[in-house]
Prior knowledge:
The chain is mostly helical. The chain is 46% helix and 7% strand. The protein folds into three domains: 1-54, no CATH class; 93-131; 137-176.
Amino acid sequence: MSQQYKCGFCGFLLNSFCDNVLEHECFRHYNQNNHNLVSDEEGILTIASQPPPDPGFRYFNLMRFLDDNITRQQTVSSISLPSPSVSSDLESSSTEPAELQQKDLLSTITKKRKEDEKQEFHKILLDALEKPQPMQGLDGFLIRLGESLKRFPYRERSRLEIEIMQLVCDRDELNIL
């Protein structure tokens, strides 16, 4: 059950009689830019004024047009879990117990399905890692080349690697043309 909210100015029970808190007469002068809607632990709502903008920045008001005023649409990646915030509790409607049971059942089914998919993915990944790959003809040459390069000092080894890669790139360009 959602928390009961009460007007801090007149004592009116908001959940029972108002669909939206801002429709209540005491909150009609509420301005989102100038005020904050505050709820205490007892569910009493009041309006508190926001602190004025930082007067230290001379061009603050001139730059206000850069503020992001666009409401963002919810996507799969931006949907968050419901939190016990004032606005969501006040705007939510009551749900039937049967609907809640159905939602709980669906959530357990989807959780189980996700867990099964996760386990299947891990099994496939482990199978791919454990399965030995057959050696190809080029693998032997690359192993010998790597062992030979290990014997050189780092600086010389780096130069040889660059020369080998340059030879491969030159040969590759000749084959393309």
